[in-house]
Amino acid sequence: MFVMLHKFLKQPIYFIAITVIFVMQSCSDKVLDVQPRDRLTDATVWTDPGAADLFLNDIYTGLPDGNNWYDPIENWSDNSICGFAWPTSRGLIQQSLQSPSNANVSGDIGGPYDWTTLYTDIRKCNVFIKNVTASASLADDFKKEKIAEARTLRAYFYQNLFMMFGGVPIITEVLNIDVQGDSVFRPRNTYDETLQFIQTECLAAYNDLPDMPSSGRVGKGAALVIKGWCELYAGKYAEAAATNKKIMDELPYELDADYAALFLTKGAGSKEAILYREYNPPGQGKGAFLDGTIGPTFTKNGAETSWGGVNPTQELVDDYAMDNGKVISDPTSGYNPQKPYEHREQRFYQSIVYDGSYFYNDTIFTRKGIGSKNEIDLTDRDDASQTGYYMRKRLDDKTLVLGAANWGGYTSYQNYIIYRFADVLLNYAEAQNEASGPDATVYSAVNKIRNRSALPNLPEGLSQADMRTAIRRERRIEFAFEDKRFWDLLRWHIAEVNLNHPLHGISITVGANGVLQYAPVEAKGGDRKFYAEKNYLFPIPQSVIDKNPQLKGHQNPGY
């Protein structure tokens, strides 16, 4: 029986429940006493805590499936370029071609930022909250905690709508057009109303959630980090500072000692992870879709072990500090442009594969003229790096077997971290600096991040503007390849600056006496366009407006 159930663990919730009913009853002589097999009924779901929890588990699958993205949101930003030409980032987002007719963000990242998918997830939350609340069979303690989980997840889904579209219809009841008719169509709430709803929901859920939840679940920290992020996104700095300070003061989260291992740590094994999508090793423990699609393309003997889906840009590389903590533009930093990869900070070596570094089973050479298959690709000839760099962070090149055998749906088992304690520290530091200036608590929060990576404290006496620059650089480096940079560019209102020029890679040639020469070059696929008059929000899909008369005439500006 266990083997049969195990095969269905990744099936949709309704399928799981029906299968469980079938298997359990096949072990009984009472073959006529069966529940309907074509649907979950109120009698089987809202009276049994196990069945209700299965329904909630299905809602958790709405969290971003970041280990199955071959073209992640990082490629929307100035941090990286997709190594092949056909996916969403290069064909749509980079050229700012999104419109109402193609606004359902396509490709592998569509789900968590798609209007229809998000409202489907919200409806699941509403169904769960309504029925668990009304259940006379479920224990009060169970109901309280599980409803709080659902409200937190619903707030997260609204967070993504809020970032994408601004003010959106707030729906908290279960709508049924057959019963309610046209009253199911709701107008957009304002930007401020949407933010206030998220804040209120997160605060209400906070009181009923555990301090440290079981692995893969949301707890108090998740509710507050969503609230604090949305406040920061909206520029509500005093509120954001207070929310993040509450996490710092009241909850037992801490920075993981090992930055690189954090992204390979499972479940509650790290006290830094606050909200994440959890994966289990599929099959016999194999799993390398993430590692086999966005990492270095060619390894030993020229084997194509990855698609090269994330190519870090020279702009990102240049923001990594030296190991003395100074930025490379500082003439006292010791940076040598002819030896650019020496004496850089730890996170550079933990995050970037560069020319001459080792990955998986081979030394990776992106320099030109030596016949390396990883030579920088300036013509889109194949999947070799467009920039001369590959991503290392989040990839397991020690225990997995990489290559084509794992491209066919073997989900990588690393957790996809959405928020962690480093978010709390840097969110607090930024908000407090904007609200009150660079006081001692701002320095303390930033220095904890720096010290974890063996960097010295920030220099004392920074102005508010200088601290702002330092925090923004720290965010870029600390959160590289965690799909945060694009949203930072939007909320700082600098996207039209950073995303309106070509991005660069590094062309390395072998000169006289074998001396390497380094020259920045415009990267193929690195051209960017961003229209400030409209691209700070995405268009509402025309298909949604056509169905909902309350949305007609209320499209986002510029579309």
TrEMBL record:
A Pfam family hit: SusD_RagB
Boundaries of every SusD-like N-terminal domain copy: 112-218
Domain of life per record: Bacteria
Keywords, comma-separated and alphabetical: Cell outer membrane, Membrane, Signal
InterPro entries hit by this protein: SusD-like_N (IPR033985), SusD_RagB_dom (IPR012944), TPR-like_helical_dom_sf (IPR011990)
Subcellular compartments: Cell outer membrane
Gene3D superfamilies assigned to the protein according to its UniProt record, in alphabetical order: 1.25.40.390
Family matches, as SUPFAM superfamilies: TPR-like
UniProt domain RagB/SusD: residue ranges: 271-559
Gene Ontology cellular component list: cell outer membrane
Family of the protein in this entry: Belongs to the SusD family.
Protein name: RagB/SusD family nutrient uptake outer membrane protein
Organism this protein belongs to: Ilyomonas limi
